[in-house]
Design brief:
By secondary structure, the chain is α/β, with parallel strands linked by helices. About 20% of the residues lie in helices and about 30% in strands. The protein folds into two domains: about 220 residues, Alpha-Beta Complex (Spore Coat Polysaccharide Biosynthesis Protein SpsA, Chain A); about 100 residues, UDP N-Acetylglucosamine Acyltransferase, domain 1. The protein contains seven helices and 31 strands. The structure holds guanosine-5'-diphosphate-alpha-D-mannose and magnesium ion.
Length: about 350
C-alpha cells in the first residue's frame, strides 16, 4: 500500500514557530508531527510513502531519513514552485509503484486524527470508486471544504471554504484515489484538488464517494490547535504509535530538567534540555528543546520555541514565544500574543495582551 503526503504548505498561521521549521516537522508530543502520521499509516499497512514537499524541502530528509525507523520506505519529491495540492499529487505520482487500478492514499500533512484507514480503503474497494474522501463533522465548516453526500454515500458537491456551508460535513484531508484517476490531474501546473480536481470529477459524473468517520480529528494549522494536538496526544485523547512513552499528565523528554518544586501538567511536553525552575506551573503547553521557564512563572496553553527563555514571575496564557525569544521578569502575555523569533522583551511587569 502506498501514500502521498502533502507537506509543501508555508505554515503561515503558525508563525513564528514555522520561521525555521516547516509545520510538519514541528515536534508534537516530542516527535515531528509528520512522524505520527507516517506511523499511523504504517500501522494501517502502508509501506511506501512519498512526501510531496516544496517549502524547506531539504529539512524533511534531514529530519526523517529513509523512513526505516517508522517502518516504511520514505521518498521525497519537491516542487521548484508550489504546485498546489493537486499539482503536488501529480508531481509525486511518478514515484508510485501501484498499478493503474490500485488504490493510493493521499493525505494532508497537518491532520492529527484517529480515523479507521483500513475501513476507508475497504469502502473504496467495495464500491470501486474513483476516489473516496474521508469526511468528518465540525462545528464551524466555513474554514474547510464542505462535502455533502447523498443517501448512498456519494459526494454531491465539493465547496472549498464556502461562507454559507449547507452541511457540517467537511473534507478531513485523506483521500483514496484509484491510481488511474490520480494520473488524470494535469501535470506541470498549479492545481488544487479542492477547487479543481474534485469539482471537475463531480461535473464529469465520476464516482466520488464519502467515508464518514467521527473519530478524533484536528487540523494543526494554528498555534491553539498545535498546542491542543500535542496535549491531546500526551494525555492519550488520541493515540499514535510514534508517541514516545505511555500517555500521562506530562511528557518530560530525556535531558529536560523539571524542578521538584514545579508542577507540569495537562499534557505538557518538556523538550530535551528544556528547564522548568522552582515554583513554576506549566499546564497544557509545549516547551521545545532548550526552552526555559523562570522561577514562579505560570504557563498555560502556550508554546515556548527552541531556546526561548521566560524570566521569573511571568504569566503566559495562550501565547507563543518564537525560537530564541527572551522575555524578562514579571511580564504578562496572553490571548494569542506572539513574540517573534529572537525578539527581546525587557523586564518590568508590562502587560501585553493580543486581540
Ligand atoms: N507539496 C505541496 N505543494 N503541498 C501543499 C501545497 C503545495 O503547493 N499547498 C498546500 N500543501 C499541503 C499543506 O502542507 C497541507 O499539508 C495540505 O496541503 C493542505 O493545505 P492547507 O494549507 O493546510 O489547507 P487547509 O487546511 O486550509 O484546507 C485543506 O484541509 C482541510 C482540512 O484540514 C483542504 O483540503 C480542505 O478542503 C480541508 O477541509
Ligand atoms: Mg490545513
Amino acid at each position: 500500500m502506498e501514500a502521498i503526503l502533502l507537506v509543501g504548505g508555508l505554515g503561515t498561521r503558525l508563525r513564528p514557530l514555522t520561521d525555521r521549521v516547516p509545520k510538519p516537522l514541528l515536534p508534537v508530543a516530542g516527535t515531528p508531527f509528520i512522524a505520527h502520521q507516517v506511523a499511523r499509516l504504517a500501522a494501517a499497512g502502508v509501506d511506501h510513502v512519498v512526501l510531496a514537499t516544496s517549502y524547506r524541502a531539504e529539512a524533511f530528509a534531514a529530519g526523517l531519513g529513509d523512513g526505516s525507523a517508522l517502518g516504511v520506505d520514505l521518498e521525497y519529491v519537491s516542487e521548484a514552485e508550489p504546485l498546489g495540492t493537486g499539482g503536488a499529487v501529480r508531481n509525486a505520482a511518478s514515484r508510485l509503484r501501484a498499478a493503474a487500478e490500485d488504490a493510493v492514499l493521499v493525505a494532508n500533512g497537518d491532520i492529527l486524527d484517529g480515523h479507521d484507514v483500513r475501513a476507508q480503503l475497504e469502502l473504496h474497494a467495495t464500491h470501486r470508486a474513483d476516489v473516496t474522501l474521508y469526511l468528518t463533522r465540525v462545528e464551524d465548516p466555513r474554514a474547510y471544504g464542505c462535502v455533502p453526500t447523498d443517501a448512498s454515500g456519494r459526494v454531491t458537491a465539493f465547496m472549498e471554504k464556502t461562507p454559507d456551508p449547507p452541511t457540517s460535513q467537511v473534507n478531513a484531508g485523506c483521500y483514496v484515489f484509484r491510481r488511474a484517476a490520480l494520473e488524470e490531474i494535469p501535470p506541470g501546473r498549479v492545481v488544487s484538488v479542492e477547487r479543481e480536481t474534485f469539482p471537475g470529477m463531480l461535473a464529469a459524473g465520476r464516482h466520488v464517494l464519502g467515508y464518514v468517520d467521527d473519530a478524533y480529528w484536528l487540523d494543526l494549522g494554528t498555534p491553539a490547535a498545535y498546542v491542543r494536538g500535542s496535549t491531546d496526544l500526551v494525555l492519550g485523547r488520541v493515540d499514535s504509535p510514534a508517541r514516545p512513552g505511555p500517555a500521562g499528565e506530562a511528557l518530560v523528554l530525556p535531558g529536560a530538567q523539571v524542578s521538584p518544586d514545579a508542577v507540569v501538567s495537562g499534557g505538557t511536553t518538556v523538550g530535551p534540555a528544556a528547564v522548568v525552575h522552582a515554583g513554576a506551573r506549566v499546564e497544557g503547553s509545549v516547551l521545545l528543546d532548550g526552552a526555559v521557564v523562570g522561577e514562579g512563572s505560570t504557563v498555560r496553553r502556550s508554546v515556548l520555541g527552541r531556546e526561548a527563555a521566560l524570566g521569573a514571575g511571568c504569566d503566559l496564557d495562550d501565547a507563543v514565544l518564537g525560537d530564541g525569544a527572551r522575555v524578562g521578569e514579571r511580564n504578562e502575555l496572553c490571548r494569542g500574543v506572539r513574540v517573534w523569533t529572537d525578539a527581546v522583551i525587557p523586564a518590568g511587569g508590562v502587560r501585553f495582551s493580543g486581540g
